[in-house]
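Posting for a labmate who doesn't have an account.
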Amino acid sequence: MIKNSISIILICICLAVPAYSDDGNIILQKVDRNLNPEVFEMYRKLINIEPDGSKKEFIMFTVKKGREQVASVFLSPASEKGRSTLRLGENMWLYIPNVGKPIRITSLQSITGGIFNNADIMRLDYSAEYHCEKMEQQEGLLLLHLKAKTRFVAYESLKMWVNAKNLLPDKIKCFASSGMLIKTLYFKKITDFGDGIVRPAVIETDSPLHKGYKSIMIFAKMKKRDLPDEAFTFNFLPRVESLR
């Protein structure tokens, strides 16, 4: 009788705990695929808002292939038009027309001058840069404690709150090696882009280091697309816009 009761209790516990609760890294990989297909193109508007309410807006066309190849080109404002960026793994470059060879840039810099840094704007798969050390369950959300795989990553650690139903991020807190909070990312407006792509269309960020400032990233026209490896080379940087 006692053995049967114990067996029933164990079965109930197993049924109550989702199968994914024991492997945060698998969840992280699923989050990556839900955010982005393996190969895609998209348009983005980046808006920097200052404490006085003034705004500066940028429009970019971006393509991504695999976990570590991202290229973008600025379409506006006119002062930025034609500038393009390339990220290959940990390495990033900015191409400026009429300047010559691409300029090396870092993940902590910002090509748009707002709260989003280059790592945010040229985002790789999270699982390419971080591994999950621990996962907790919090009222319909999964809290992933992520640690950087190398010292070249923009943030030493992340806390990512993931919706347990759709496996999409709800909020991410980004920390320095000292444990100081650098910024918080808020994922909003779940949108069906078609072709099985359902993800947040808006990411907002603020930072305790830049009080009163705010940046917003709005995604549009995201779709799966085959892309040649040539699109992610130095020689192609002047021609990224031709992929539109």
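Reply:
Got it, the structure tokens are right above this. Residues 1-22 have pLDDT under 50 and may be disordered.
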